[in-house]
Amino acid sequence: MSVAKIRIYPDSILQTKAAEIENIDGRVVHLAEDMAQTMYAAPGVGLAAPQVGVSERLVVIDVTNPEGKKGLITLVNPEIIEMEGKVVEEEGCLSLPGIRENVARAERILARGYDLDEREQKIEATGLLAVALQHEIDHLDGILFIDRISRLKRGIAQRKMRKLVQQAQSSEEKDYTLF
Ligand code: NI
Question: Residue 136 catalytic?
Fold first, then answer.
């Protein structure tokens, strides 16, 4: 296993719809392991394959305190099949270091996907897990959380990111939750 380099906005892979995975083979298992290790190292509570440069539909999420990694969820080809209610929570993203904005999401969702043993998984979620699933599945469609905020705030975030990339500096802020 190894920690992968996280792609930073405006990398075009982050704005590209990712491909379905047709076979859950050793390559996919290995990718999922690397993604989990990268997420824990960041640290973050979720990571989507495009964020490590692979445009495929795979996400890892762990919204528990990742001691022992018991809360790790790996989903291949995940989709949201039900959503209801609305919550507004502050979000960040490992691909947009230093940017935090309130984002409106469904309060309760039902997600479906496959685990690494090709078993279908259905996850009903509320709270942070519901937000994380929506955020990560958005990544697979090339959608970032800044695409879900006002144009004005998005413009500010984009300028901040351009400046950050120009300065080629990485964020030292590690004391908040990132997806
Ligand atoms: Ni993200």
Answer: yes
Quick check: 174 pLDDT over 60?
no
Q: Which residues surround ligand 1, an ion (CB under 5 A)?
A: 93, 179
70 within 8 A of 64, measured Cβ to Cβ: yes
User: How many whole angstroms from 160 Cα to the centroid of ligand 1?
Assistant: 16
Which CATH number characterizes residue 86's domain?
Answer: 3.90.45.10
Whole-model pTM? 0.92
Q: Is residue 56 part of a domain?
A: yes
- For residue 57, the 8-state DSSP code is S
Arithmetic mean of pLDDT over the chain: 93
Distance between Cα 176 and ligand 1 center (Å): 13
Please compute, for residue 6, the number of CA atoms within 13 A of its CA located in the half-sphere on the CB side.
Answer: 24
Catalytic residue, candidates 79, 136, 172, 173: 136
Asked, for residue 133, whether it belongs to a domain, the answer is yes
